[in-house]
Amino acid sequence: MTVQETIRTMAANAKKAARMMASLSTNAKNQALTRMAETLIARKEFIQQENEKDLAAGRQKGLSAAMLDRLALSDKVMAAMGEGLREVAALPDPVGEISEMSRRPSGIVVGRMRIPLGVIGMIYESRPNVTVDAAALCLKAGNAILLRGGSEAIHSNLALAKVLQESLASQQIDAAAIQVIPTTEREAVNVMLGLEEYLDLIIPRGGESLIRFVAENSRIPVLKHYKGVCHVFVDQDADITMATNIVMNGKTQRPGVCNALETLLVHREIASGFLPVVAGELIRAGVEIRGCPRTKALLPEVKAAAEDDWGREFLDLILAVKVVDDLDEAMDHIALHGSQHTEAIVTNNYKNSQRFLREVDASAVMVNASTRFSDGGQFGLGAEIGISTTKLHAYGPMGLKELTCKKFIVYGDGQIRS
Amino acid sequence: MTVQETIRTMAANAKKAARMMASLSTNAKNQALTRMAETLIARKEFIQQENEKDLAAGRQKGLSAAMLDRLALSDKVMAAMGEGLREVAALPDPVGEISEMSRRPSGIVVGRMRIPLGVIGMIYESRPNVTVDAAALCLKAGNAILLRGGSEAIHSNLALAKVLQESLASQQIDAAAIQVIPTTEREAVNVMLGLEEYLDLIIPRGGESLIRFVAENSRIPVLKHYKGVCHVFVDQDADITMATNIVMNGKTQRPGVCNALETLLVHREIASGFLPVVAGELIRAGVEIRGCPRTKALLPEVKAAAEDDWGREFLDLILAVKVVDDLDEAMDHIALHGSQHTEAIVTNNYKNSQRFLREVDASAVMVNASTRFSDGGQFGLGAEIGISTTKLHAYGPMGLKELTCKKFIVYGDGQIRS
Fold this sequence. Notes:
The structure is a homodimer.
Chain A lengths: L2 H20 L3 H17 L1 H18 L3 H7 L3 H16 L7 E6 L5 E8 L2 E6 L4 H12 L3 E5 L5 H17 L7 E3 L6 H7 L7 E5 L2 H10 L12 E5 L5 H13 L8 E7 H17 L3 E4 L1 H6 L4 E2 L13 E7 L2 H11 L4 E5 L3 H10 L4 E6 L16 E3 L7 E3 L5 E12 L3
Parallel strand pairs in A: 3-4, 3-6, 4-5, 7-8, 7-12, 8-11, 9-10, 9-11, 12-13
Antiparallel strand pairs in A: 1-2, 2-16, 14-15
Helix pairs in contact in A: 1-8, 2-5, 2-7, 3-7, 5-6, 10-11
């Protein structure tokens, strides 16, 4: 079979499986997830042998230590995957929830029932644990999933899929509900993106170039985020200690992630009191500051920000800092340079807190909290399949509910329309 | 300016306007809608003059009487548009609604706030009243809208846009919130579909070929439905009178619309009692029946259904009829031939009603009611901007809420992540 035929057949089988998945009971899904957790441990040796093939190939190709670390299915990573499966089993089942029921003037009773989306296509790089995490969430939400991982993790991903499929089969669930595409050819991604008759949603996870490629070539709806350029605006009457803590946490706790802080905006009235304090802490923590002219006037030792430092995702210990006249200038700056990911204000002014919450367009808008909280787990979604910074269907961290939708249901007793 | 430049500038202006629209008060939006209703009437003569240019051109081009009728802005249509504007003003404002607030273990309080989508692109054919209806719903939901109507209605659409913009300006609202593209060149659609930096959503309304073109060429998310192939399944223990009424209403009340009935599925145990009754009524109403072999065995006078009559959208007084063994065969037929629009069962069996509601994948699933109820107004959405038969973001009739989304909001008092 050609790559095209192979993937088309897999997708068609996934679509068939999706019909069965949609009507599985919560118990059956939870038992399958628990069984997967058990089988992962029971088959650890096999999985780690296959993982070793990827690691050996990676070493040969000269992958960095960090890349190899992301690839490795150590005992710790294996245990975390098992734990993740049990956590998903413990989450409430979103499918079947009925809401908004009301009787209409015609006499029909109309409401909405939550249902699975169908077949999810997942395109991702590197970390093989995504295979298990994504499969677990899709299964719990009653979907089938077709996974396409990075070529450097192909043996690991196929081994994990094999074990997950064994678990499904042992529970009389169609194994086609979880499939990993077995070829590493790049063409596979293009084929997937054209299968709109079988796939209902594509979720890409990886670098910006992968995500752009998927978004530009897909005929299937895509949930995506390109980057996280998060701002904190320290308002005129902010608490300086609180603001310092929030800036330090946002910038230094884990600088390489999408909800880390990239640009600090400071009200001019608080700048001379606040900037020296926060700059001292930042510099002690090894952060490079790139300031606007007014920032440099207060902190002559820092580097000048270049025009393209505004709106830049450093993912590193670098922070752009700008002094602004007021809330409006801060919000204008965010509207121009933000990435609709996460934006925060630090303020004790009630009116400004409300305006910021209402008027800033981002998937998460915060008052007096660190941008690092922008996360499915922290927001109470239980687990996260990704983040969306476009507004259709989902905006922000996506959990189980975002892998479902609602249909209308109607109870009548013979009504016809006049 | 080229077509490309013109449309890009309009879209950029719409995006600027969208930021203002998002923070308009409910009162300001309602006053603008009321003002539009008044201005439409005050400027009726101008609008009808411009409409006459389209009608004259249409007559010259040899448009059918039905097409000319759809195009005409008669006094009655003008009054209905004004009434529609007042109805939208009376609907609750979805923007700003806060839900799901809860305190997380970290101490932050997280919830969701409903916000507008931004800029909606609407691509439609024929009826110029869509210009007003769509603009009203988008405005109420806090969005800007860029409209591209059919070339045969260009003078009417531009006249309506002019009047709507005058109303906006009189209320100090940026007139760029409602714009009609002034060129009839086909290229305009392609240009719109590529402006993903400015447009958040495309809604096409028209024939299947227009919608397919938009879906296949858009880089912006599209909410669409291609067609409505609605089935009614008459179960073994259905009430024969109720089933007959529901079939007659679905097929004959308005055969040319997407929620009309196209295929009747009949349980074999009720077929001999039910089919002669319903066939008599259908034939008296001028409906052509196309039956499967088992149907023809009971109704020898009817035409045989061809293979491509299953899943066909007749939009006419034609009904495909098939006898099935049981509920499972009916649901298999619907899964294979349905269009995920509206599906109904007529039954007195509790278990079968619940299975049908749960297991049938369609945007609206009904028990003992006519498929003709599948409509935003009938479902209580107030007004309808279209119907979606794909599952992302919206599934089924779309009202004001479907022109919005939710962002996460966080209230903290200095929390940082550990």
